[in-house]
Amino acid sequence: MNTIENIISELQLDEHKRKNITEDLQRRPVTITGKDLLELKVVKTPKLLGNIFSQVGIIGFAGSSDVGKSTFVRNLAAAIVLGEKEFIGMELNARYRRALYVSSEDFEQDLAYLLQKLNNSYKKDSHSYDGLEFIINTEDHVQVLEQKLSENPVDLVVIDTFGDLYGKSMNESNQVRSFLNEYSQLAQKYKCLVIVMHHTGKRTEDFAPSKHNLLGSQGFESKMRLVIEFRRDKYDPSKKHFCIVKGNYLSSEYKDRSFVLRMDDNFHFTNTGERVLFDELGGDDRSHSLELQKEIWKLKELGMTQAEIAAALNTNQTKVSRLLKGSN
Predict the structure, then answer these.
(1) Which range, 81-95, 158-172, 281-295, is most confident?
(2) Within the chain, how many helices (H) and strands (E) appear?
(3) For position 3, what pLDDT does the model report?
(4) Do residues 243 and 110 share a domain?
(5) What is the DSSP code string of 156-220?
(6) Which domain holds residue 315?
(7) Domain count, the chain
(8) Do 203 and 319 lie in a common domain?
(9) Is 59 found in the same domain as 95?
(10) Tens-digit pLDDT profile for residues 251-277
(11) Tens digit of pLDDT for each residue in 224-259?
(12) How many Cα atoms within 13 Å fall on the side-chain side of residue 249?
């Protein structure tokens, strides 16, 4: 019986295509045994960003319109190609210093302006960004990605946004999963991270961050092993909340409070070091918060500690700290 390699060699294909097909088959075993898995001796999943983003896989990144989610992910992509060793205060482990960004929302001039603003912070020459490619003609973008990935390995692929590129009913769970599976297969085949940008539902910022805030069926979040909800701060427009609302391989300490980030005028993000409980990010009535803030300041002026103020007003110390720092 002919081997797979012999069958391929008999096909009337040029040498380059035969080589690609053979390498593709060799990369993708049909099965793998438990013995083989153990002998890989993987004691820690390789990460791209901190302990949060894996080097390989597909994750969801969601938020309301104009919250800055695309700005954040562009900043991450830039940090990768510039060879930065950290991003938002977390270790950044880029292997190839390359990223592909599929953009369905921004035109060439928009992207040029946004990248120019960001580079006001990095102050690098234009050649430093050679590893960052934007795909702005999204027709047949999966095939374009396949071609690009076969030519050069990348650390990151960004799909911005899911709703534009999917173009079907988001309530059809099976169709959603089938569509996302194309990206998942690319991630596994080419050993990279794929971030799929998505939107949250209307008025979901009135509720605590949750994977249930995402638009459409469960099909989107169920395909992901990690889902981030990105939202604005209620009091300080320069602050954003990076909320891990689903993380199958993360401990609970990552999933009950946000990482508070600050975005400067150049659209560059830094980590403030603050963490805010998800329950604190729901839709508190603003007038109530203002009254509470006044009471907090009165007690603060009396010399009470934040812990004592929280106990006196029957609230928690995180909220006390936030309202003392907040700009209203």
Answers:
(1) 81-95
(2) 12, 13
(3) 45
(4) yes
(5) EEEEE-HHHHH-S-TT-HHHHHHHHHHHHHHHHHHT-EEEEEEEBPTTGGGS---GGGBSS-THH
(6) 286-325
(7) 3
(8) no
(9) yes
(10) 888 999 999 999 999 999 999 999 999
(11) 999 999 999 988 999 999 999 999 889 888 999 999
(12) 13
Estimate to the nearest angstrom the gap between the alpha carbon of 56 and the chain centroid: 13
Q: Say if residues 186 and 225 touch (Cβ distance below 8 Å).
A: no
Q: Which residues pair with 261 in a beta bridge?
A: 240, 271
CATH number of the domain that 171 lies in? 3.40.50.300
Of the pLDDT bands very low, low, confident and very high (cuts 50, 70, 90), residue 219 is confident
* 96 shares its domain with 237: yes
Query: Are 235 and 292 in a shared domain?
Result: no
Of 17-26, 102-111, 155-164, 252-261, the range with the lowest mean pLDDT is: 17-26
Backbone angles phi, psi at 228, to 5 degrees: -110, 135
The reply to whether 179 and 239 lie within a common domain is: yes
Q: Are the C-beta atoms of residues 84 and 92 closer than 8 Å to each other? A: yes
How many other C-beta atoms are found inside a 10 Å radius of the C-beta of residue 252? Answer: 7
Matching residue, tokens 């292997």: 95
User: Rounded to whole angstroms, how far apart are CA atoms 304 and 296?
Assistant: 9
Q: According to the model, what pLDDT value does residue 45 have?
A: 86
Contacts of 108 (CB under 8 A, 6+ apart): 136
- Gap between the Cα atoms of 303 and 309, Å rounded: 10
What separation in angstroms does the CA of 84 have from each of 49, 133, 311?
Answer: 11, 17, 43
* Distance from C-alpha of 61 to C-alpha of 324, rounded to nearest angstrom: 30
* The one-letter amino acid at 256: D
pTM exceeds 0.70, yes or no: yes
Among residues 9, 32, 12, 10, the alpha carbon closest in space to that of 22 is found at 9
Same domain, 232 and 86: yes
- What whole-number distance in Å separates Cα of residue 81 and Cα of residue 298? 49
Q: Are residues 115 and 232 in the same domain?
A: yes
